[in-house]
Structures are given as C-alpha cells and as structure tokens.
Design a protein that fits this description.
Elements: E1 3-10, H1 22-31, E2 36-39, E3 41-42, H2 48-65, E4 68-70, E5 72-76, E6 83-87, H3 99-108, E7 112-115, E8 137-142, H4 143-146, H5 152-161, E9 165-168, E10 180-185, H6 192-204, E11 209-212, E12 215-216, H7 223-253
Parallel strand pairs: 1-2, 2-4, 3-5, 7-8, 8-9
Antiparallel strand pairs: 1-10, 5-6, 6-7, 10-11, 11-12
Length: 254
Amino acid sequence: MRELRLAPHIHSSFSDDSDWELPRLIRVLRRAGFDGALVCDHDRTMDAGTWARIQHECDRLGDDTGFLLVPGIEYQDPDHIVHLPVFGRAPFYGRSPIIDDVVRRAREDGAAAIFAHPQRREAWRRFDPAWTPYLTGIEAWNRKYDGVRPNTWALAQAEQLGLPATVALDWHGTRQLYPLALRVPSPPRGDNRQRSGAVVSSMLAGRMRATAFGIDVARFDQGPLGRSTRGFESLRTWAAPKVRQIENSLRGQS
C-alpha cells in the first residue's frame, strides 16, 4: 500500500510566532520530499472565524496544488505547559482550555489529539495516563525540543500505554527542517477535505508510522544507532548556545 509522507506539526502565519504563509510552506515542504502537512496553529491567536479561514485555506490550496493539508489547532493549558495538537474538523474549543476537556471532546468530535513535546518545560510531569483512551499518540521526537534524537520518556510511555509514538517538526522556520515524517496510507481520490478526513481517520485507527530518515523512530533509541544519536545530541546541546550567541552578535552588527 502506498503511503503519504506528511510533515507533522507545522505552524503557519495564522500563529503569532510564525511568518510562513501556507503557499510558501507548500513550496518548501514539497521540495523537501513531503506529500502533505499536518498544520496546527496556536489556540492563543484563534477564534471560530480564524479557524474557519484556516480550514478554507487548507482546502483551497490543497485542491489547487495537490499538496495535502490537514488543518489543526495546537491547544495549550492555562499554564502554557501542556500542549495538545488536535487535527481534524472539530469545533474551536477556546483559548487555553482545560486539557482534560479537550482530549475527551476531540475524540467525541472525531479529531486526533496528540500529547506534544513532553520535554518542553517538563510537560511530561503533567501527563495523565487517564488521557490514554482519548489520545491518538505521544510526540516521541520533536525537532524543536528534542534535537537529533527521540525522547526516551515518550518512547517508553507510548510503548507502556499502547499509544503510537509520533514525531513533530514543530515548524516555525527552516531550522526545524529535518527528515521526520508521519507516514499514513494514501487516501482515496477526492478533494482536500475528503482526503484530510481520511488521514485523520487513519491516525485515530493507529494506521500511521513515525519515521526519521525513513527508519522507525524507536530504533534511534536502541543499539549503535541510539548510542550515536545520544552523542550527536550531546554535541548539539553544547554547541547550540554558542551558535545562537554568534547569530545574535551578527544581527547586532547589521
């Protein structure tokens, strides 16, 4: 069965921390080899009207370009610690809602909810196993917060609870461009709305694979591959502040 290679957890200019218009995202992500994207813009800049516009733009551009766009919203709890991307055509649940309510309502509304970036602000400490029946997955590798290897806690938790491990570019710019993909069965022919609905249905049924460089993400926490990625991540963590310092210095001189 043919699979679609989707760019997961993508922020567009509908978010307050991204200036990437959807047409530009399509061009860049398509050149990077993706067949589509899971778009999730922040609830803090959302209202019902904006959510309707996002869905309309995803469908219009998806139909025009053939690049599949699945609309979604990234919800944050009132403390801005737990984040929950929700993909599908569920209604807007409001800004900074109670996450317990969102996970249940999303499932009832046929949307796919994913526990995002557990490493960020130690969100994993607030994970509630009672959410398990309502969640579609746990982000085991978020490019923005986990760097070049998956999150060990997330992989173990996903396995223990029987939840799919997912991945996320958490796209705000090209720095997050990395060969992480969510692979789903290619949906039947149809317009963007129909095909994106089929993708969400596949996610809800667990018919998806999270990969890095085309390899199952769990393998990056085991054996020689796991040891090498731990070394690379240690090096990246050491170098990242120095790189940012140089970038800030160059910006200050310009």
